[in-house]
């Protein structure tokens, strides 16, 4: 499912409009086998960590092999697209350059641990054929039971209550939230989070708590509204302990 962060400066460093700059997208593929799909919260948390793993990978920074694509992507609209794969589709996607991140959910007879593969950014109209043919729709995932309250010491990505988003759309939004938190952290704070393995939780607060969070000064994702929800909708608050006032 496609998604875009809209609440950034309208200009890139050279003064070009972000909409006029070449557009790139960060592809994420979630493995969804028919017999045992992952739980929704596990998939959302794994997608968020996948974005962080890509942002922090040595190949994504400096003179790394993915660094140019990462810079071009972040200089335009920050787009992410989540697609689904299973069986041979997943094996073909896994053969492409990228990173696979495993979730923390247990494997049961009816649910598997989430697996998300993230790839270096690609041009909006230049997807590899192995990914272009994958379906965007069909990422309807559920939790067998409500997730527990998050550990207060953990970073939490709070998903807006009342917004009807598919799992794929919510995964992209969680990735946006993780990215906003990453941008706000110092190098020391980033290093500590990375070395800890990017622990985080994704939860949905009640309406009253959501109002408090959106007024707290923490980073807020406002979606560009390309799919599913209205433009400018507040979708995620990135609540990292280092950013709490």
TrEMBL record:
Keywords: Hydrolase
Entry protein name: peptidyl-tRNA hydrolase
GO molecular function annotation: peptidyl-tRNA hydrolase activity
InterPro entries given in the database record: Pep_tRNA_hydro_II_dom_sf (IPR023476), PTH2 (IPR002833)
Domain of life: Bacteria
Stretch list, region Disordered: 1-20
EC number(s) recorded for this UniProt protein: 3.1.1.29
Catalytic activity: an N-acyl-L-alpha-aminoacyl-tRNA + H2O = an N-acyl-L-amino acid + a tRNA + H(+)
């Amino acid at each position: 499912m496609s998604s875009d962060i809209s609440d950034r400066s309208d200009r890139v460093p050279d003064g070009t409009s972000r909409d006029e700059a070449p557009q790139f997208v960060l592809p994420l593929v979630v493995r969804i086998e028919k017999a045992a799909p992952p739980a929704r919260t596990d998939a959302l948390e794994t997608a968020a960590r996948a974005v962080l793993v890509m942002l922090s990978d040595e190949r994504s920074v400096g003179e790394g092999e993915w660094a140019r694509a990462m810079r071009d992507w972040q200089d335009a609209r920050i787009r992410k697209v989540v697609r689904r794969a299973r069986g041979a589709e997943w094996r073909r996607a896994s053969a492409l350059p990228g990173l696979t991140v495993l979730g923390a959910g247990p494997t049961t007879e009816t649910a598997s641990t989430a697996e998300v593969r993230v790839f270096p950014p690609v041009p909006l109209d230049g997807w590899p054929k192995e990914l272009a043919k994958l379906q965007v729709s069909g990422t309807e995932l559920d939790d067998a039971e409500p997730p527990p309250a998050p550990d207060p010491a953990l970073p939490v990505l709070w998903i807006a209550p009342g917004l009807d988003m598919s799992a794929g759309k919510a995964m992209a939004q969680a990735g946006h939230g993780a990215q906003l938190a990453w941008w706000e952290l110092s190098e020391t704070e980033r290093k500590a989070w990375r070395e800890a393995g990017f622990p985080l939780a994704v939860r949905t607060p009640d309406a009253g708590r959501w109002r408090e969070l959106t007024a707290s000064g923490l980073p807020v994702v406002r979606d560009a509204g390309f799919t599913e929800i209205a433009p400018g909708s507040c979708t995620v608050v990135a609540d990292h302990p280092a950013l709490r006032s």
